[in-house]
Write a structure and sequence with these properties.
The complex is a heterodimer of chains A (482) and B (770). With 482 residues, chain A is an alpha/beta fold. Helix content of chain A is 35%, strand content 16%. The chains are: A alpha/beta (482), B mainly alpha (770).
C-alpha cells in the first residue's frame, strides 16, 4: 500500500481513527504522531505494507546547516593553484563553454580569474584541502564526507534554494523536512517533527522564505515550525502575564469538560481530537522551554561551541539548540544562516562569515559524536550553489567578488551512515566537474536513502499526479554511503 | 505495546482504504453494468496511462489504453495478441498481464512502483471486457444536461431539486437524513456561510421570535444583501487569484494590488454574472468599451509573484509569469492540471504539449517584462493602471483609497506587435521548438478560430460559452464546497482523469445547467443551495452514519465545518464588539509576534521591518491582514489560510496544537476577551447574565445547564483568585492596545470574566460552524 493512502486515510478518516484508537497513543497531536515510529523495523514486508520506512535506515535524524547565499567553494574547500598562476587573466572560452551567466555578470566583457587570497592545507586521512578560514572544521575532517562535485540547475538564490529544499525551482512543493515528517512521522510527542532556526551573518545577505519549510500539498502538520529568538521560542507558546501553569491546567480541565459536553450531544470525533490538541499544546509549553533553555549547559559545552552560543539568535546558539532538539527526537532540524552572497567584497565578508560559523559547525559534529549520536544523525553543511572562479566587477590586489556558479560547488556531510572522505573532482580552473558529479536530486535521494526511504517510493498524489522530493530524477550515490 | 498499537493502526488503515475505495468504485451499489467512466477509467488512469496513455514520449510498446481503437488493435510487440478482446477477458493480454505471477510479464511493472492491481480491480476489468469493453468520453468533457428529477420516497422532506438528487442517493444506500437543525444552529450557519460573521444578539432574538414559515428565507435574503457577503465570498477568489501585498521573491518588496481585491468584493456584492466576472478578469482590457474597471479586473492575471532579483535572466521570468497564468486559469476555471503538459504531453488527460503552448500563447503577448527593476522599482509593474483620486471618488468608488495619492496596479495590456510562441522543449524558457498559434484546449471544446479572435478575449468567450462542459460545473462545485464542506467532485481543482468522480453527477449537472440558464447568477445559485432541506439538516452524527458514511459524502447530515482562518479572527473581533467593519483599502498590519519579518529579510525594501498599525486598523477583518509572501501572517497560516504562493482552489482543514496555542495566547484573542469583559461588567448586570450574553455572542446558542454551571463556577473561582491577589488581576487584563475601560473597584470582576470569555473562545464549537 502506498504511503499516500495511509496519509489520505489518516486525514479523511481521522474521525474514525480517533474513536477507534481511543486516543491511545498519547494524543493524536501532530499528525505525524498518528504514524507511530516504525524506526528499526526488522520486518521488511510489514514496513512496505505501511510504506514506512522502506528499508533499514542508517540515520534517524537530520540536522541541515544551510549556508544561505552560497559560500565560495574556491576559498574554502576546492583549492585551485591554477587560479593563482593565471590571476587576472581571462577565463578561457574553452572552459566556460558558453555556460549561461547571471544578469549581474552577463554584460562583463572580461572574466578575470581570481585565485583565493586564503592559505590552504591538507588535513586528515584523506588529505582534504581546507582553507585557513576553517580551522575548526579542519580538525574534524576525519568525520567529514566532503563532496566537491555538487551541481544544480538554478543560477539565482530564490529558485536555487527552493530547488534544494523542495526538489523544484518554482512551485509550492513540500520541503525536505516536511517529506521526512510525512514519511517517518515523529519520534516524540512533545515537539514538532520539523524545526527551523534562522540566523544572520554580516556578509551580503539574501532573505529566507517560509516556503522553504512549507508542507506544500502535504498536511500542514508537516510544516516546519520556526523557532524564534524572542521570548516565545515557538509562536504563541507562552501563557499571557498572570496565567501560571496551575491556572492553565485548571482552564484546560474546564475546557475539556465543556468540549466533552458538546461531544456527547454532537458525536463528532473531531471534538475529541481538539481536546487532545490542547493537551499536546500544554505539553509543548513545558517541553519547548526546557529544550531551548541553553543557560544550564556546562562550561565545556559553551567552550566547545564558543561564547556566542549563549547569545540567542546566533549561529552558534542555533547549532547548540539544533543538537538539543535533535537529541530530543526532532526528525529534521533546518538551520539557515544568511550572509554568504559575496558578489563584491568577498575576502572580507567571507572571513567574517567563517568566524561566525566555523567553530559551531565543528562543535556540533564533535558534540554529537561524544554523545554517541553522530552515527544516527546526519549533519549536512552547504549552500544553494557555488561561486565563480572569475571576478565580478573589478579585480584588484586586495579585493574580489564572485558571482553565482551552479556548475560545481562543495558541501560536506557527517555521521548518519555517510562514508568520510573526499568525493568528486573539478577541473584545474574549478569551473567544471571532471569526475563523480552529484546533482541536487542525487543528493536528496541519498539523504532519504540514509533515512531508510526510497526516493522513488516516497510519493504523494496531488491533483492527479504522484509527486516526489526528487521530482522525476535523482539516484542514490552509493559511493557516499558507509 | 508499541507493536500492538501498530497492529491496530495497520488494521485501521486497511479499513480506511476500503472506505476510500467504496464511493469511487461503485457509485450505484448493485448495478450490474460496468461503467467505463466510473469503474474502469479510474483504474486505467492511475495504473496504466503513465506508460500507455497520452504522453507519446513515455509510451511503451506503442500501446495506448486511453483510446479505444488503439487498445483493441493488434499489439505491435506481441504478435497475434490484443490488449483488449471485447467479450473475451481470457484472450485479452491486459488481463493476462495484470494477473501474472511472473515479474517480467506482470503489469504494472514492478519498476514503476505503481503496485499490483487488487482483486476488486481485476474483477471489474474482467467483467467490463466480458461485457464488451465499451469506452465512454470522460464525463467532464461531455456538456452537462438536466436529467428529470429522480423519484423519491421522501417527497415531503424535499424543499427543492437538490433534495431529490440527495434523497435518491441516500435511499439507495439505506441512509436516513437528519431532521432540520434548530433555529439557533440554522442562523449561525447562515450568518457564517454568507457573511463570515456570527449573528449578533439582536438578529438572534429576531430570528427566534419570527415563527413564520418565511423567517428562514427572509433572513437568508437579508444576509445575502449585506456588504459582508462580498467580503466573505471574495476570500475564496483571492485564494484562486493568489492575491498578496508583496512581490514574493527574495527581497519581497511592497506591491499595491489591493484595488483588485476591492473590485472582487464589489463584484460579488453587485452579483456580477459569472460569465462577465470571468470575461473582465481574463480580457477586460480588450473589450471594445474597456474602462478602468474592466482593466482593473485583469489584475487577476498579474497577481503572480514578480522577481526583483538582480541576477535573473529576464526572459526566464517572463515565461514563468505566463506559465503561472496558464496554471491559474486552467486550475481554477477549468479544474484541469494543464501545467502537467508544460514539459511533456499530459500523462493522464488529453492535453498535449502543443495544446499547452497554444493555451500559453494567449498569455504570451502582454507588455510585461521579466525583470523591470530591482527592489524599490515601484509597487506596480508594466502594464500599470493608475487610479487617481477622481477615479476612486467617482466611477470606482468601491475602491477605498486611504489618501488622495494615486494608486497603481499591475494589469494586462498587449504588445503592439505580437510575440511568437514556441513549444518550449522540456518546458525550458529558451529551448524553442515549433511555432504555435493560440487556441483553447480542444479536448474540452473546439476553439473555432474562424469565429473567435486568437486573443484572451477569444479565450474568455470560449470559456463562458454555454456549451463549455467545464466552466459552470467547476464554479458550482466550488460553491458547493463552500457551503457543504467538500465538492461534489472532491478534487475541486482536478476534473481530469485522475480527479475524483462526482458523488452526485446528475445533481452537479442539474445545478450547472440551471446556473447558466439563470444567467450565471451566483447569488441565485447560493440561495438554491441554502434553501435546500439538505443544507438545513442538523449536524448530529449517529453511530450508523459514522459507520456507513464517515466523510459525509452523501449528506445524511450537515457537516460541522471548522471556520477559515479569517473567519476565526472575524468571529473573535465581532463577538467582542471590537470589529472595524470598514470595507477595502490598503491592507493592514495587526498584532504579530515580534521579529518575524526581521529574521527573514535581506534588509532591502519597504518590508524589511514589520510596522504594526495602531488604533482602528488593528480590528479589521482577517481578509485585510497584510500578506507578505515570504513571511505570511502566522496566525492565519496556522489555521490553514492560503500562503498565496500560487492559485489555490481548496484549503485544507487541519487540527494542530499550534492552533490551540493561538486561541489561548494570541494578543488578539486576549484583548477581545478583555474588552468584551469590560463592556459586560460596565453594564452592571449580574454575573450569570453576563456569562450568558458572552456565551450567546460567541457560541450563538443558549448554554445548557451543565455548561452554565461550569462557567459560573469557573467565574467564582477566578474572582476569588483575583480578589485575593489584585495585582494578578492587573497583570491579567494587560492585553492589547485598546483603551482600558475599568476601574479599581471592578478590575477583579473584569479579570475573572475575561478568563471565562477566553475559555469560551477556546471551545471547539466557537470556531466551528455547526
Amino acid at each position: 500500500m502506498e504511503k499516500e493512502i495511509l496519509e489520505h486515510g489518516l486525514n479523511i478518516n481521522r474521525r474514525r481513527f480517533l474513536t477507534s484508537l481511543g486516543m491511545g497513543i498519547g494524543g493524536a497531536a501532530l499528525g505525524s504522531l498518528l504514524v507511530p515510529d516504525l524506526f528499526g523495523s526488522k520486518n521488511a514486508e510489514e514496513a512496505i505494507a505501511t510504506g514506512l520506512p522502506h528499508f533499514a535506515p542508517k540515520a534517524k535524524r537530520i540536522i541541515y546547516l544551510f549556508q544561505n547565499g552560497a559560500p565560495s567553494q574556491l576559498d574554502l574547500f576546492d583549492y585551485k593553484p591554477k587560479l593563482h598562476e593565471m590571476f587576472g587573466q581571462d577565463l578561457p572560452a574553452s572552459v566556460r563553454q558558453g555556460q549561461r551567466l547571471t544578469g549581474m555578470t552577463a554584460d562583463q566583457s572580461k572574466f578575470p580569474l581570481a585565485g583565493t587570497f586564503f592559505k590552504f592545507d591538507q588535513y586528515g586521512e584523506h588529505k582534504a584541502w581546507i582553507s585557513e578560514l576553517l580551522p575548526h572544521t579542519s580538525r574534524i575532517v576525519n568525520d567529514l564526507c566532503i563532496v566537491k562535485s555538487l551541481y544544480t540547475e538554478a543560477i539565482n538564490h530564490d529558485p536555487a534554494l527552493t530547488f534544494f529544499q523542495t526538489g523544484a525551482q518554482i512551485g509550492n512543493r513540500p520541503s525536505m523536512g516536511a517529506w521526512l515528517s510525512y514519511g517517518l512521522g515523529s519520534e516524540n510527542k512533545n515537539l514538532p517533527a520539523f524545526c527551523v532556526l534562522l540566523s544572520k551573518g554580516k556578509g551580503n545577505g539574501q532573505g529566507v522564505y517560509s516556503k522553504l519549510w512549507t508542507n506544500g500539498f502535504l498536511d500542514s502538520v508537516h510544516q516546519g515550525v520556526q523557532f524564534s529568538n524572542g521570548e516565545n521560542p515557538v509562536l504563541y507558546l507562552n501563557n499571557p502575564e498572570g496565567m501560571d501553569k496551575a491556572e492553565r491546567r485548571k482552564m484546560l480541565d474546564q475546557l475539556a469538560a465543556l468540549n466533552n459536553e458538546v461531544y456527547d450531544e454532537a458525536g463528532d470525533p473531531e471534538i475529541k481530537a481538539k481536546v487532545q490538541q490542547y493537551e499536546m499544546a500544554y505539553r509543548m509549553q513545558t517541553a519547548v522551554p526546557e529544550v531551548t533553555d541553553l543557560s544550564k549547559e556546562p562550561e565545556s559545552i559553551v567552550k566547545l561551541y564558543g561564547a556566542d552560543c549563549l547569545v540567542p539568535g546566533t549561529y552558534a546558539a542555533n547549532c547548540l539548540l539544533a543538537r538539543k532538539l535533535s537529541e530530543n527526537g526532532v526528525r529534521f532540524v533546518q538551520i539557515y544562516h544568511q550572509g554568504w552572497d559575496g558578489h563584491n567584497n568577498l575576502p572580507k565578508e567571507l572571513a567574517g562569515q567563517c568566524l561566525d560559523t566555523d567553530q559551531a559547525s565543528a562543535a556540533l559534529v564533535t558534540d554529537l559524536k561524544q554523545r554517541g549520536l553522530l552515527d544516527e544523525t546526519l549533519v549536512i553543511w552547504g549552500g544553494e550553489f557555488g561561486r565563480t572562479n572569475y571576478c565580478q566587477g573589478t579585480l584588484t590586489k586586495d579585493n574580489y567578488g564572485r558571482d553565482h556558479h551552479p556548475r560545481c560547488f562543495t558541501i560536506w556531510m557527517a555521521g548518519g551512515g555517510i562514508k568520510p572522505g573526499v568525493y568528486g573532482e573539478t577541473d584545474e580552473f574549478g569551473y567544471n566537474i571532471i569526475s563523480n558529479p552529484v546533482h541536487v536530486h542525487d543528493f536528496q535521494a541519498t539523504a532519504l536513502h540514509l533515512m531508510g526511504l526510497d526516493h522513488e517510493r516516497l510519493v504523494y498524489k496531488h491533483l492527479g499526479r504522484r509527486y516526489r522530493l526528487t521530482d522525476v530524477a535523482g539516484k542514490v550515490v552509493t559511493d557516499l554511503i558507509a | 505495546m508499541k507493536w500492538k498499537i501498530t497492529a491496530i493502526i495497520i488494521l485501521c488503515i486497511a479499513v480506511a482504504a476500503a472506505w476510500l475505495s467504496w464511493p469511487a468504485k461503485s457509485p450505484v451499489p448493485g448495478r450490474n453494468e460496468i461503467s467505463y467512466n466510473y469503474d474502469i477509467r479510474p483504474i486505467l488512469s492511475d495504473k496504466c496511462f503513465i506508460c500507455h496513455g497520452p504522453d507519446k514520449n513515455k509510451r511503451e510498446a506503442g500501446l495506448r489504453l486511453d483510446i479505444e481503437t488503439n487498445a483493441k488493435a493488434p499489439l505491435r510487440e506481441t504478435k497475434g495478441a490484443y490488449a483488449i478482446v471485447p467479450g473475451s477477458p481470457e484472450k485479452s493480454e491486459l488481463i493476462k498481464r495484470i494477473t501474472s505471477t511472473d515479474p517480467s510479464y506482470l503489469m504494472p511493472s514492478p519498476a514503476s512502483h505503481l503496485g499490483v492491481l487488487n482483486k476488486d480491480e481485476i474483477a471489474l476489468l474482467t467483467k467490463w471486457i466480458k461485457q464488451g469493453a465499451r469506452y465512454e468520453k470522460h464525463w467532464a468533457f461531455i456538456s452537462p444536461s438536466k436529467t428529470p428529477l429522480p423519484e423519491i420516497k421522501e417527497e415531503k422532506w424535499a424543499r427543492n431539486e437538490i433534495d431529490y438528487f440527495v434523497a435518491s442517493k441516500l435511499q439507495s444506500l439505506h441512509l436516513k437524513h437528519n431532521e432540520e437543525a434548530g433555529k439557533e444552529t440554522l442562523l449561525k450557519r447562515l450568518a457564517f456561510d454568507l457573511t463570515g460573521l456570527p449573528p449578533d444578539l439582536q438578529l438572534q432574538n429576531e430570528f427566534i421570535a419570527d415563527k413564520s414559515e418565511a423567517a428562514y428565507e427572509k433572513t437568508l435574503d437579508k444576509l445575502l444583501a449585506t456588504p459582508q457577503f462580498g467580503e466573505k465570498m471574495a476570500i475564496h477568489w483571492l485564494d484562486i487569484s493568489r492575491y498578496a501585498d508583496s512581490y514574493g521573491y527574495q527581497d519581497d518588496d511592497y506591491r499595491s494590488q489591493w484595488p483588485y481585491r476591492d473590485w472582487v468584493i464589489h463584484a460579488f456584492n453587485t452579483n456580477m454574472p459569472y460569465d462577465k466576472f470571468l470575461t473582465w478578469q481574463l480580457a477586460g482590457d480588450m473589450l471594445p468599451d474597456a474602462g478602468k474597471e474592466q482593466v482593473l479586473a485583469t489584475a487577476f492575471l498579474r497577481n503572480h509573484k514578480i522577481t526583483e532579483e538582480g541576477g535573473v535572466i529576464p526572459e526566464e521570468y517572463r515565461v514563468e509569469y505566463a506559465i503561472d497564468k496558464v496554471k491559474t486559469y486552467s486550475r481554477s476555471i477549468l479544474a484541469l492540471t494543464a501545467e502537467c503538459a508544460q514539459c511533456h504531453d499530459h500523462k493522464y488527460d488529453p492535453i498535449s504539449q502543443k495544446d499547452y503552448y497554444r493555451l500559453f500563447a494567449f498569455f504570451n503577448t502582454s507588455k510585461e517584462k521579466g525583470l523591470e527593476g530591482l527592489v524599490g522599482s515601484g509597487p506596480a509593474k508594466t502594464p500599470v493602471l493608475k487610479l487617481t483620486q477622481n477615479d476612486t471618488r467617482d466611477l470606482l468608488n468601491f475602491i477605498h483609497a486611504k489618501d488622495t495619492a494615486a494608486v497603481t496596479v499591475s494589469v494586462m495590456g498587449e504588445l503592439d506587435t505580437a510575440r511568437a510562441t514556441y513549444i518550449l522543449n522540456r518546458g525550458v524558457y529558451d529551448q524553442h521548438g515549433e511555432v504555435v498559434t493560440a487556441a483553447a484546449l480542444a479536448s474540452v471544446m473546439n476553439f473555432d478560430t474562424t469565429a473567435l479572435p486568437q486573443s484572451r478575449l477569444g479565450l474568455a468567450t470560449w470559456t463562458v460559452n454555454k456549451k463549455n462542459p467545464l466552466t459552470a460545473r467547476v464554479l458550482v462545485n466550488q460553491m458547493w464546497e463552500q457551503f457543504f464542506g467538500k465538492g461534489i467532485v472532491r478534487s475541486v481543482g482536478d476534473f481530469g482523469m485522475q480527479g475524483s468522480l462526482p458523488t452526485h453527477p446528475e445533481l452537479l449537472d442539474w445545478l450547472a445547467v440551471d446556473f447558466m440558464e439563470q444567467g450565471w447568477d451566483i447569488k441565485k445559485l447560493i440561495k438554491k443551495m441554502l434553501m435546500s432541506a439538505t443544507y438545513r439538516q442538523s449536524s448530529g452524527i449517529t453511530k450508523e452514519q459514522l459507520e456507513k458514511d464517515p466523510e459525509n459524502l452523501y449528506y445524511a447530515r450537515a457537516s460541522r465545518l471548522r471556520m477559515s482562518a479569517e473567519g476565526i479572527r472575524d468571529m473573535v473581533l465581532s463577538s467582542s464588539g471590537l470589529l472595524n467593519r470598514k470595507i477595502g483599502g490598503p491592507s493592514v498590519k495587526p498584532y504579530q509576534p515580534r521579529g518575524l519579518w526581521e529574521a527573514a529579510t535581506s534588509g532591502r525594501g519597504q518590508l524589511a521591518t514589520y510596522r504594526q498599525d495602531k488604533g482602528e486598523d488593528l480590528y479589521r477583518r482577517g481578509m485585510y491582514t497584510f500578506i507578505k509572501l515570504t513571511v505570511p501572517p502566522p496566525s492565519m497560516i496556522i489555521f490553514d489560510a492560503s500562503n498565496r504562493d500560487e492559485c489555490l482552489v481548496s484549503r485544507q482543514k487541519t487540527n494542530t496544537p499550534l492552533q490551540a496555542l493561538v486561541m489561548m495566547n494570541d494578543p488578539t484573542v486576549l484583548e477581545a476577551s478583555r474588552v468584551f469583559a469590560e463592556t459586560l461588567v460596565k453594564k452592571n448586570i449580574n454575573p450569570e447574565n453576563t456569562i450568558l450574553t458572552a456565551f450567546e455572542s460567541i457560541i450563538c446558542r443558549k448554554p445548557v445547564k451543565k455548561e452554565m454551571d461550569l462557567l459560573s463556577n469557573y467565574y467564582k473561582d477566578q474572582l476569588t483568585l483575583f480578589n485575593n491577589k489584585k495585582e494578578l488581576a492587573e497583570k491579567t487584563i494587560r492585553a492589547g492596545e485598546y483603551p482600558y475601560n475599568h476601574n479599581s473597584s471592578n478590575i477583579t470582576e473584569v479579570a475573572a470574566l475575561m478568563r471565562v470569555i477566553n475559555l469560551i473562545y477556546n471551545m471547539e464549537e466557537a470556531i466551528v460552524r455547526v
